[in-house]
Amino acid sequence: MGRFTKYLPIRLIRDEEGAISVEFVLILPLLLSWYVGSFAFFDAFRDYNVATKAGYTIGDILSRQTSIDNDYIDGLEGLLEQLTWEDDNIYIRVSSLTFTTDGGYEVDWSRVTADSQVLTTEMVYLFKWDESHLPVMASGESVVLVETFVPY
Prior knowledge:
By secondary structure, the protein is an alpha+beta fold. It has six helices and three strands; from the N terminus they run H-H-H-H-E-E-H-H-E. It has helices at about 1-5, 10-15, 20-65, 70-85, 120-125, 130, and strands at about 90-100, 105-110, 140-150. Strands 2-1-3 form a three-stranded antiparallel beta sheet. A hairpin with a 5-residue loop joins strand 1 (about 90-100) and strand 2. The longest helix has about 45 residues, at about 20-65. It starts with a helix and ends with a strand.
């Protein structure tokens, strides 16, 4: 580099004219990526928030029921479609879990819409829901687990 600069006039080496234009051209793709990415992140968090609130609403509705059948769950899927503005690839899985005397969870029943699989006791331990997603309960107590699946 030193040999190259000795042939250039000092005035040309110290010339800073046009430096802002070069910096702008270098930074512009980063700024545009950040701007477009912020819309994608905002949209993802908005969809996550809407799906979570819809799940809370469906869970609240189910907590007030004494009898739940497959037709009722299918109707709740329609409600989920209305609340999330989605109609493709969404489904609901509703399960009743009991905390057993040996300190584990057991699935009493599970109902699901669409072509998904019902929740089993083995799946509860496979996904380790007992540690992070299920509440601490007394022996013999049961809980209704509502899972909503909404694609983004």
